[in-house]
Amino acid sequence: MTIRGAIYLRLGTSALAACLVLPAAAHAQARSVAMTIPAQDLGSALKAIAAASGEQVIFRGDVVRGKRSNAVQGSYTAERAIAIAIEGKGLSISRSPRGIILVVASTAVSKVGKGSSTDGEIIAATPEEAEIIVTGSRIRGTTPPGANILTIDRRAIDSSGYATTQQILQSIPQAYGGGANEATSGATGASGANQNAAYGSTINLRGLGPSSTLVLVNGSRPALGGISGTFADISTIPVSAIRRIEVLADGASAIYGSDAVAGVVNILTRRDFTGLETSLRYATADGDFDELQISQIAGAKWASGRAVLALEYNRRGALAASDRDFATQDLRRWGGGDFRSQFANPGTIAAGGQTFAIPAGQDGRSLAGSDLVSGAENRQDGWQNADLLPRQTRYSAYGSVEQAVGDNLTFDVESLYARRNFARRVNPAGYQSSIVVTAANPFYVDPVGTGMPISVRYDFTDDLGPRTDLGHVEAISGTAGARFRRGPWAIDLRGTFGRQSEVFRTINIPNFARVGVAAGRTDPATAFNPFGEGSNSSQAVLDYIRGSTESRGRSTLWSGSLKADGPLFDLPGGPARLALGYEHRGEQFRRNVRSDQYGLEPTFSNAGSDGDRNIEAFFAELVAPVVGEDNDIPGVRSLTLSGAVRREHYNDFGATLDPKFGISWVVIDGLRLRGSFGTSFRAPGFADLVQDDLSNVSFITPLDDPASPTGTSNALFIRGNKLGMKPEKARTFTFGADIEPLVLPGLRIAATYYDIRYKDRIVDLTPVLFQMLRNRASYQALIVDAPPLALLESYINSPGFLDFYGLDASDVDVFIDAQTQNLAVTRQRGIDFDIQYRTALASGMARIGIDGTYILQMKQAASGTAPYVNLLDTINNPVALRMRGLVGWNSDSWSLSAQANYTGHYSNNILAPAERVKSWLTIDAQVGYRFTDRKGALSGLSLSLGATNLFDRDPPYAAFSFNGITAVGYDPQNANPIGRVVSLQLTKSW
């Protein structure tokens, strides 16, 4: 059986299990009960809810201690009432397989042990009575001291108006829009966007790069996507299967290993769902962009286990550039430049040092030199037949099964399958080349009367159709585990497999080798004619010159882990708890490229990005409650310390050792101070470690050089990957405070200061290659003036030397080491803030709040000895201020919300002089209604009508240029081109 077949079989087994147990396990729909419970001690509020509803509720005393509840007023189910009471308290709820409601510290519970009663009494569950998934800690039931965790729960997902995981995560202020996502692919190479051929999406916390944010699914790494396996593609994760997303905005390599530099995103699935839920969502943006999503989730629980199956279909149309006024290369109407391509149809002839525009309205068969417009050139806007966003269709399935065997052993299996198809018409700028036409061509026109070959700048879109990217991504993952309890200790054994395959094709492009052949033919029936308007060559000729490219990549990951955790010894504040573990992970990437663009026959290669690696890791973590509330120490209600360390060994570059320390100090009720300090790292990617003749090359080229008496120097460049590449390293410090004043129940204020120093960053110098001598202060460490002759000859005589200008060693003035290597140092400091107020209002709960991030400093040095350059508030980098405000009200039936999203102004320093890009404010709104206390078809039905960018505000103007080749009138890294999107969603609970 193939791996794909095995995964299908597993999913089918999960579905069958769910269907078999549903009839027997389904329980009556929870009833709503009128409640009036004022804000008070959270433990007392939970007891009151349990007494009013008759439901069992379990919580640990230390989890709710020192917290005050939100007021609950209205008719609610027990789960809804508890959700209101604990909202904003860093807690979450879950139903156990036995129907008990558990309140835990930002966790998902999977098993309840003995000791549960059935009369609605609150039971103080011990840590051993629940197996808990925790973001930022390996110890069950522990919120990591000092952690800054942002939680996006199911309710927030449903009320967001968003349909994809990427949209949901992109809405948080800490997420920067640069990097790998469908909007930036092909528009910029910054932040690794050029690695995203298959239009995937990931998250880029704090703008430190997508590969510096670790993405987990239920605590496990997925296989990576991208050209060389560089980022986690969250576009494959079905939204209907997500229960909660937790974002740890802090370095965490001591807990999770590589990539956890800017933070960790943990996507937790709805493994505790019970019943049936069908959802249908349709959205449109003024009719020129639409989206359809259909999902079904089914879940069942029995005395010793549970099962869930979620299916989702999502289809979204392409967004044509012609439907947005700002999507143009001609920016003159805003005072910008004209970036329209010189490759047009009709084309432009270059001959004798002059240009001649070919006139419109003729077929090129009777064109004379006198018909040409001397000194003019035709231009064409590459966006007129292109899309800003691709057409995407996704099919996904998630399944999980969990079964307890006795009281001490539990087995679980989960799997995820997704396939995403995409297609996009692409702006051809940068992918064109002039055609050389000789006098032998029967359509040849000589504008200067020499009979010499001429060059025609020509666009092939009318001949071949729009240049189009299309393909698919297929992701498969599976995890199986067993948890064994031995007294107060638990042992977890787990294995994970993941694979992501990408197929990317580009069609409707010319094969320039065959174009040259066709342009040199003498027979009018077989010669290519580039002298008219539109397409003027035979179909046989067009079929002959038609080229294409195809890339196939496959990222594979497998891992195994063994972890044990439990109490170690008693302290005044409670038992110290320890986790110890071992992990082994294997990673592999394979890529094959077929190119039929530049040769008479297709060529094949692996593009120099294949790789294999094995990683071994040992980790330990200790949480010590030094002081507890019962110790009665003035100024110290509680004090908890934590320490963690992780050692990882990579077979391809060596070992790393990363510690982390945290502190949580409750000064008085309602005031908590917290902090953390640790180190993190990012391992070099496979493409960074490649050493071959394709990537290691040298060449000599003249460059502008202000330091030269002549203003020009001949520079010998060495390109490729430097030997001895080592991991990027970071040091992170945070300090924060959480305030819940007793005099104003419902108000919560949280603020976190962070400081990141990120060094040895792996830098590809391609974007700045020919500007290095104009910026010697930044790149002096890589520049050697008057280099030794022997050094130059060693490169010139090597197989990788490319002779472009016929220069030798004696002609070289400067040597530049432009290899990809550990170079840059980045420093970022900032403040995350969150202010929320909740209060009972008109038989419901009202909420008003604002959260955001304010970056105080972001600067980067090209090397450890180079001066720092400011990056903050400049294009291709994060904006200093991003925030969002929320106003909402909800009852058991109604929900109303409005959200304001703000991105501050910044500087477009691509231009000289730099231009100011205005701030951008958009408003989202949603109204929802849930039918309650009804029977028949309307029972369990919810309706919601929402709008994102309610007032249809265009992105602020920015002359966004990609290497001077093309441009567009907005910045896709900081703005969304779609406009107002109106959505209607129907959800039916059965």
Entry summary:
Among the domains are: 31-133, Phage tail protein beta-alpha-beta fold, CATH 3.55.50.30; 685-724 and 773-817, no CATH class. 10% of the residues lie in helices and 46% in strands. β4 (92-95) and β5 (101-104) form a beta hairpin.
Describe this structure in words.
The protein is mostly beta strands and 990 residues long. Among the domains are: 103 residues, Phage tail protein beta-alpha-beta fold (3-Layer(bab) Sandwich), CATH 3.55.50; 85 residues, no CATH class. It is built from 13 helices and 54 strands. The chain has a 22-stranded antiparallel β-barrel. A hairpin with a 7-residue loop joins strand 38 and strand 39. Helix 2 packs antiparallel against helix 4. The longest helix is centred in the N-terminal third of the chain and has 23 residues. The chain is globular, with a radius of gyration of 31 Å. The N terminus is likely disordered.
List the helices and strands and how they pair.
Elements: H1 3-25, E1 33-37, H2 42-53, E2 57-59, H3 61-64, E3 72-76, H4 78-86, E4 92-95, E5 101-104, E6 108-112, E7 122-124, E8 130-133, E9 149-153, H5 154-159, H6 165-170, E10 175-176, E11 204-205, E12 213-217, E13 242-248, H7 253-256, E14 263-269, E15 275-284, E16 290-302, E17 305-316, E18 319-320, E19 348-351, E20 354-357, E21 373-374, E22 387-389, E23 391-405, E24 409-425, E25 435-437, E26 454-457, H8 461-464, E27 468-486, E28 489-510, H9 512-519, H10 539-545, E29 546-571, E30 574-596, E31 603-605, E32 611-627, E33 638-650, E34 654-668, E35 671-682, H11 686-689, E36 697-704, E37 712-719, E38 728-739, E39 747-763, H12 776-779, E40 783-785, H13 789-796, E41 801-802, E42 814-817, E43 821-841, E44 844-861, E45 868-870, E46 881-890, E47 894-903, E48 906-908, E49 915-917, E50 920-930, E51 941-948, E52 960-962, E53 966-968, E54 981-989
Helix pairs in contact: 2-4
